[in-house]
Amino acid sequence: MKINTLYFGELEYSKQEMFHFSNGLPGLEEHRDFLLIPMEEGVPFSYLQSLDEGSLSILVTNPFDYFHDYDFSMNEGTQFELQIEQPEDIEVWSAVTVTEDLNEVTVNLLAPIIVNSKKKLGRQIILHDSGYTTKHPLPLIPSEESIEEG
């Protein structure tokens, strides 16, 4: 299969590479199928490229690379929906927002994207009653320092 994208040109992909989000993403419910496109090796960011809209790509990163104390729980309904059988099947991504001022890069810790990397299923959850924000400052280099919720 092929898709013409705004940032990556024409991409060829197989169904096995697709991540399916049965409910889409909050605010983007009509976008249900995505590819994960890693940046160059050693760079802790990837792009979540919509297969429903070639011009939609979301920059993501693993929040645990930056915030070692990041913590949340996932309800049983999400675990069932994502068909999670083993903890090692789970990956967590957070959306990153980049502005012209690279000192103002932020990450959305309030709404992590949870995926079953084995079954290629995903869902973005919103953490209620959490001290996390949608625009938490992101250091440009992963740090040994961590944040605490609150």
List keywords for this structure.
globular; disordered C terminus; two-stranded antiparallel sheet; mainly beta; 1 helix; 9-stranded antiparallel beta sheet; 150 residues
What does this structure look like?
With 150 residues, the protein is mainly β. Strands 3, 4, 5, 6, 7, 8, 9, 10 and 11 form a nine-stranded antiparallel beta sheet that branches. Strands 1-2 form a two-stranded antiparallel sheet. It is globular and about 40 Å long. It contains one helix and eleven strands. Mean pLDDT is 91; it is low at 145-150.
Task: Characterize the biggest β-sheet.
Answer: 9 strands, antiparallel
Mean pLDDT: 91
How many beta-strand segments?
11
Q: Provide the CATH topology.
A: BH3618-like
Strand content: 25-35%
**What is the overall silhouette?**
globular
Helix content: under 10%
**Category from helices, strands and their pairing:** mainly beta
Q: What is the end-to-end distance?
A: 45 Å
Computed Rg: 15 Å
What's the total helix number? 1
Poorly predicted runs: 145-150
By CATH, the architecture is named: Roll
Count of domain modules: 1
The CATH fourth-level homologous superfamily: BH3618-like
Write down the CATH class. Answer: Mainly Beta
Order of helices and strands: EEEEEEHEEEEE
